[in-house]
Specification:
threonine synthase activity, threonine biosynthesis, alpha/beta, globular, Thr_synthase-like, about 15% strand, lyase, six-stranded mixed sheet, EC 4.2.3.1, single chain, Rossmann fold
């Protein structure tokens, strides 16, 4: 199998292999890495999808993206761990489905990318003499997933930056109570401030002697494996459809995916899957009040505003890093983006109302992020400029278990949530973190800890 290389989106750095792209995180010119080509998966694969296991699917899709850096045996071992839990597609209405991505160890969709990247780094660091420091900024779920995914990985230290008072108590516990090789830094500021600090680290000549990489979705090993659950959702959809249409010759309608979007790595991975051959009628980027992308698609002007705190805090991002990758997937053609992606903005009031309406109609409990995804799906089906019908199957991504936003969910719905075992385990731990206000303090922390 020929190797796909990775290039800088700014074009100012040499192309490299998957391994080097993962270990660097950002290209030397400080822009994001992107594959030099998008592999096309054969039509036979998509037809055979219902009969394939998740790991078989993962091998088919990820092997061409990591060729030359990971042997298939190592990739299979990583996928065995990454895909060791379920990704159920749950009907919540006629032609409407929730793709539940919260059945992993930290009960959030970030478990897939975090576990895949941890497996890659563990493989790449075998026999290495120097410690790798993994930096990550989190608006909520990334930190916990990365902390759990990298916990105890030899030769790796994880440093997580998170904004004070802007993550839920459970989210904070998931990244501050594990200890060992996991260090947490509480930042006075919002997620964009945390993300900016992480990017500054890679520009700092004083830190060039450290072996640093990032575990945010700017890293290709965190970003790309998220394409797998879109394909697994389509596999579940095929199984449902084939069962219900056993004696029918009706043509299979392609689904629309509605994705609650913050840093846009998730929806970007879904579009990557589509470019590789996944049938998809449309994608919806559903945002909260941080609506840079909906405004951009409406006006053609990309103007981030100050980040606004919302009840869907993992999406509180005003300058999403991965938008440049989405732009690249469409070769910089804004009209082509608009044909395949719609973006809608929703307020906290609308989010709470959606949570209540879904629960009343179907008994299904959405977390605030899933509710935003549900709202995006409904908006897309009503939009005149989008070619969808009432019978178009709609899949919205439920990115985190409602328990992670327990106070808001219980208050909005008037219910008491049971605490799952994955969460009860971290509730007993003691929060341990350092507080920082400035980039200088982060630099000093990294130099001291190294």
């Amino acid at each position: 199998m020929s190797s796909i290389e990775y290039r800088s989106l700014s074009g100012q750095s040499p192309q490299t292999d998957f391994r080097t792209a993962v270990l660097r995180g950002l290209a030397p010119d400080k822009s994001l890495y992107f594959p030099t080509e998008i592999p096309k998966i054969s039509a036979d694969f998509w037809k055979a999808l219902p009969g394939l296991s998740p790991v078989e699917i993962g091998l088919e899709l990820m092997a061409p993206l990591v060729a030359g850096s990971l042997e298939n045996s190592a990739l299979q071992q990583i996928l065995n761990d990454t895909l060791s839990f379920d990704f159920p597609l749950v009907a919540v209405g006629e032609h409407c489905y929730s793709l539940e991505l919260f059945h992993g160890p930290t009960m959030a969709f970030k478990d897939v990318g975090a576990r895949f990247m941890a497996g890659c780094l563990e493989e790449f660091n075998r026999g290495a003499q120097k410690k790798t420091t993994v930096l990550v900024a989190t608006s909520g779920d990334t930190g916990g997933a990365v902390a759990r995914g990298f916990l105890g990985v030899e030769g790796v230290e994880v440093v997580i930056l998170y904004p004070r008072d802007k993550v839920s108590d459970i989210q904070e516990r998931q990244l501050t109570t594990l200890g060992k090789n996991i260090k947490a830094l509480r930042v006075e500021g919002d997620f964009d401030a945390c993300q900016h600090m992480v990017k500054e680290v890679f520009l700092d000549p004083e830190l060039s002697a450290l072996t640093l990489t990032s575990a945010n979705s700017i890293n290709v090993a965190r970003w790309m494996p998220q394409l797998l659950y879109y394909v697994l959702a389509y596999r579940s959809y095929l199984k449902m459809y084939n069962k219900s249409q056993a004696n029918s010759r009706n043509e299979l309608p392609e689904p629309v995916f509605s994705v609650p979007s913050g840093n846009f790595g998730n929806i970007c991975a879904g579009i990557l899957a589509h470019k590789m051959g996944l049938p998809a009628a449309h994608f919806v980027a559903a945002t909260n009040s941080n609506d840079t992308v909906p405004r951009y698609l409406a006006t053609g002007k990309y103007v981030p505003h100050k980040t606004q705190p919302t009840i869907s805090n993992a999406m509180d991002v005003s300058d999403p890093s991965n938008w440049v990758r989405i732009n690249e997937l469409f070769h910089g053609d804004l009209e082509a983006v608009r044909e395949k992606i719609s973006a809608f903005r929703f307020t906290d009031a609308q989010t709470r109302q959606a949570m209540q309406e879904v629960a009343k109609a179907s008994g299904y409990i959405c977390d605030p992020h899933g509710a935003v995804g549900f709202l995006g799906l409904q908006a897309a089906l009503k939009a005149k400029e989008i070619t969808l019908t009432a019978s178009t199957p709609g899949i919205f991504l439920e990115t985190a278990h409602p328990i992670k936003f327990r106070p808001e969910v219980e208050k909005t719905l008037g219910i008491n949530l049971e605490i799952p075992p994955q969460i009860s385990a971290v509730m007993k731990g003691k929060k341990e973190f350092d507080s920082i206000d400035t980039y200088g303090q982060l630099r000093e922390f990294l130099l001291t800890s190294s």
